[in-house]
Structure formats: structure tokens, C-alpha cells
Amino acid sequence: MVNHKTLNDFWNSTSKFQKFVTLPSIKTFSTDCDLSRNARQLHGREIGPHQFNGMSESEVLTEASKLMARVVVRTSVGSWYIKGISTLDTYSHIENLLTRNENKGLRPKSTSYLLKYE
Which domain holds residue 45? Predict the structure, then answer.
């Protein structure tokens, strides 16, 4: 795992969302994860991953928080993806996938942000 952090640094600059969005804690990993197809569908329709380019880290994390997403990925080429919008994969399952992928050295130039909502 790369580090642990919270959204407090950027949250102050996006305080208008504080009333509407739960502040998650974040763990970051030097890898990516491919969530199951079932985790990318809700009521039979595709819901992700959603791609966000040209946005800052704080903007993407704010969007992910509004969607209550579990994972945000910054690829090695700088693209952002929001994943894990449905609740079919648990936090611990996704954490295990990310830890396993990081230990195997898969996609080490990508950064995954695992979001946990209290």
C-alpha cells in the first residue's frame, strides 16, 4: 500500500458538498483492479467504470463521493476512472483484490484510491 490519507485537504476547497456527501477515508495502492461484471451493473444496466479526463484529483474524488463509489483509479497515462458504484463487492473484497494485485506487481504505474464511507 502506498499510503493512507483522508479527504480533509481537498474537502475544505469543496465545502459546498459537505452537506450532501459523506466524507470517506482513503487508502491508496500502486495498482488497479478489475471488479466483477456484476459489480458494474445495477438493475440490469451498466453503471461503470466512468471515465473522467481533464479533472483534478479533488474534482474526481468529489464526484466519486457523490456517487458513493468504492474505487477511483488514476491510470499510468493520466486517465481517471470511478469504479465500484454498486454495493455488490464489499470493501474488504476490493481491498484484498488491490492488495493482491499490488503484491503481484500488476499495473504498478496506476494508482487506486479505495474509499470507505462511515
Answer: 3-116
